[in-house]
Amino acid sequence: MTEPLSADAYRDLLSRALEGTVDADTRRPDSHSLYMPDLHRSALYVDSTVVEGGRGDGKTFWARSLLDPVLRAAAAAEYRINRLNKLRVSPGYGQDIRSDSYPGPMALPRLVDGGALAEEIWYAVLLTALGQPELRALPEWGDKLSWLRANPGPADRTIEEADARAFAEDVVHLLVFDGLEHLHPDQRVVDRLIAGLLRVAQRMRFGTRNIRFKVFLRPDMFEAAKQLFPDASKLSGNAAELTWSRTDLYGLLFHHLGNEGGADAERFRRITGGWESTPGPDGVSSARHVPPIALRNDARAQTELFEQIADPYMGSNVRQGRPYTWLPNHLMDSKDRISPRSFLKALSEAAEVTRPGHDRALHHSAIHSGVRAASRVRVDQVGEDTPWVRTAIEPLSGCQVPITQGKIIEIWQEHDLPSELRRDSARYTQHDRPELVVTGPRDPDDLPRLIQELVDLGVMRRRDKERDEHALLDLPDIYRLAFGLGRKGGIPLTGRR
To answer: 243: alpha, beta or left, given left = phi > 0 and alpha = psi -120 to 50?
Structure first.
């Protein structure tokens, strides 16, 4: 009989297995990190043009997995989607700089500012991916657009012929688009570019048999694009969402523990039982281990296992909550979405903070520390994608939530927030610093609308149906803690000694 893991062994396994998971955008997915929640299956359907997901929900992970033939084959096998084996996948846009496939962070803003239309840009990307020889011979994207304007007939025929060949060969040309929040410094331009992209995507969806786009988007960006392109609602019917249930999150945790190298991970698999191990997809790397269905989908089985790892209560008794439910509840944004990156960061921090010798790997007070650490990471990540959010919320530090809309606007006016937001936008529009191409609010002078944008992003939550100065607003803990707002009876901003 296999001896159970000690608290210290579990703590060490957690630390090793979760190391670096917060850097998922910079770490390439591999067979060991490829975890496939049931809820994500529809995101890989070829005809699911739009895939919605927040920061850290897996958009870049799945975009890169689709571009990797080995990982794509693994997903096809586990999800039983045979059509994934009949794809020719090309990057349409992404965080990787690939100027041969799409305009980069310096070229794209200049094309737009020079008068290029959104649809022209995306048609040029499509034709390049389809191998249009005259376009591929032109290294500069400005020259590609000039060719496109001068040769509409050959451009259309290239698409028709590529579609016919793909149909005859029983394959689908799939273009993958990710990282679209970085298209341009001006959020209104981003909205227009995405609306143009969705127009082209819709034409391919309904006008060809074997050419498809896969567009990974934040939900608020999809909604904004619909305002400029009402027909985008036709894409909503087959849109997919990268949502994470509580059982998905714990299944991801156990997947990481079972796929970490070493004797403790092997013992963990033997103790829990029912794991399926398959050779590495390349035939060379170590095996990939798939958790049993109970550890992926059964809340009771997950609770029993997690309570061997963490304290049974979030305090001295059950009234203070059980860690299995308490932790995800305090990591939700205002849309009730939980980022797996935040979840794993909280657990990693809790493992580091819990002192050796405790009878569980995770002390309940260390889980509090984990939520605070996850909040700091979440706010940093939002600051990278949408730095105006930090600029807007930081003046509220020291306030208590819930807080009225009138009080928020009063504080913003005292700090002259519209002027500060405009200065930020100008500072970030630096063509010699492409990594600083980020986005701003749609109208810095409209402060009630700014609040609504924060609600749409999941940063703020409305407590009632009011929209006037008396309306009550809240910040979920995943943002509140790092931004320094208090809540009576909530997780304190700093740990108690």
So the answer is: beta
In terms of DSSP bridges, do strands 211-217 and 50-52 run parallel, antiparallel, or are they unpaired? parallel
In angstroms, the CA 213 to CA 439 distance is 24
Mean pLDDT of 270-293: 81
Q: Which of 190, 95, 105 is nearest to 441 (CA)?
A: 190
Strands 50-52 and 87-93: unpaired
pLDDT at 316 over 90: no
Q: Give the pLDDT score at 220.
A: 83
Q: Which residues contact 274 (CB under 8 A, 6 or more apart)?
A: 291, 292, 293, 294, 295
Question: Higher model confidence: residue 319 or residue 81?
Answer: 81
Distance between CA atoms of residues 304 and 313, nearest Å: 13
Q: Is the dihedral of CA 373, 375, 380, 384 positive or negative?
A: positive
Q: Cβ neighbours of residue 304 under 8 Å, at least 6 residues apart?
A: none
What DSSP string describes 408-435? HHHHHHHTTHHHHHHHHHHHH--TT-GG
At how many degrees (to 10) do helices 246-259 and 299-309 cross? 50
d(CA 256, CA 66): 21
Q: How far is CA 490 from CA 48, 84, 232, 320, 480, in A?
A: 40, 46, 41, 11, 10
Helix (H) or strand (E) holding 398: none
Query: What is the model's pTM?
Result: 0.88
Q: What is the 3-state secondary structure (H, E, C) of 37-91?
A: CHHHHHHHCCCCCEEECCCCCCHHHHHHHHHCHHHHHHHHHHHCCHHHHHEEEEE
Count of CB atoms situated within 10 Å of the CB of 134:
14
At 4, is the pLDDT very low, low, confident or very high (cuts 50, 70, 90)? confident
The β-bridge relationship of strands 403-404 and 50-52 is unpaired
pLDDT for 147 equals 97
DSSP 8-state code for residue 400: B
Q: Within 13 Å and on the Cβ side, how many CA atoms surround 300?
A: 0
Distance CA 425, CA 457 (A): 19
Q: Which residues, 6 or more positions from 295, have their beta carbon under 8 angstroms from its beta carbon?
A: 250, 251, 254, 272, 274, 301, 302, 305
10 Å CB burial of residue 332 (0-12, 13-18, 19+) is: middle
Q: Does residue 402 have a cis peptide bond before it, meaning omega lies within 30 degrees of 0?
A: yes
Rounded distance between C-alpha atoms, residue 332 and residue 316, angstroms: 24
pLDDT over 90 percentage in the chain: 75
Neighbours of 208 (CB within 10 A): 18
Backbone phi, psi, residue 212, to 5°: -135, 155
Per-residue pLDDT tens digits for 370-381: 999 999 999 998
Asked if residue 178 lies in contact with residue 63, where contact means CB atoms within 8 angstroms, the answer is yes
